[in-house]
Specification:
Length: about 200
């Protein structure tokens, strides 16, 4: 009996931990029907970090300085890693999970960067990040909040669909000590959740 209760509590905990809220702010999904490809661009210009909403510049300056105090050159190396993670981890994770889920459901839609000829573009704007942490026995997942906008590629002012994605969790149970890897899992979760929403809204 105790084992059954523990299992139920564990499942409930996982459900809460990995839930992500997506909300349609404006527009509908009608334009997606019949499309085979979407251009994707990632935007980080105005993102905030942690509960006190540090700017990216503030966060980088503070963290880099702390790392430099521990070991000369470590802060500068981290700065390069932090920026490079956008192209090496975040964008690939988002696209991989989104396309994998689309392919699994045989929807026939591809989301990729650099598709300048695609009629529509998905702008993935990072609004807020929480890197999480892993210090052995204590772990917290990362969280990623985004603004997802589908716009006409030739006219970016024409927003056809706008969705907010709040607190996508970056799984911390894999044991990674890398903030960037945890955050990357948050982008992967965002891509998968968005794919699921699109499939749900366009299944007819």
């Amino acid at each position: 009996m105790k084992k059954q209760v523990a299992l139920v509590l564990s499942l409930l905990f996982c459900g809460v931990m990995f839930a992500q809220k997506m909300k349609v702010v404006k527009g509908d999904f009608d334009f997606i029907k019949g499309q085979k490809e979407f251009n994707v661009e990632f935007v980080y210009d105005n993102m905030k970090i942690y509960k006190d909403n540090k700017t990216n510049e503030e966060y980088m300056t503070e963290r880099s300085a702390k790392l430099e105090e521990k070991s000369k050159g470590k802060g500068k190396a981290w700065e390069k890693k932090w920026i490079a993670a956008r192209e090496l981890i975040y964008a690939p994770k988002f696209l991989e999970l989104m396309n994998r889920y689309m392919e699994k459901k045989k929807k026939g839609i591809v989301f990729e960067e650099g598709l300048a000829d695609a009629k529509y573009t998905l702008l993935v704007e990072t609004v807020w990040l929480y890197p999480g942490y892993n210090v052995g026995v204590m772990r917290r997942p990362a969280k990623v909040s985004t603004l997802l906008r589908f716009v006409e590629t030739a006219n970016r002012d024409n927003v056809l669909l706008e969705i907010t994605g709040k607190h996508a969790p970056g799984n911390s149970f894999g044991g990674t000590y890398s903030n960037e890897d945890r955050i990357g899992e948050g982008y992967a979760k965002t891509g998968k959740t968005l794919a699921g929403l699109i499939l749900k809204k366009t299944k007819k």
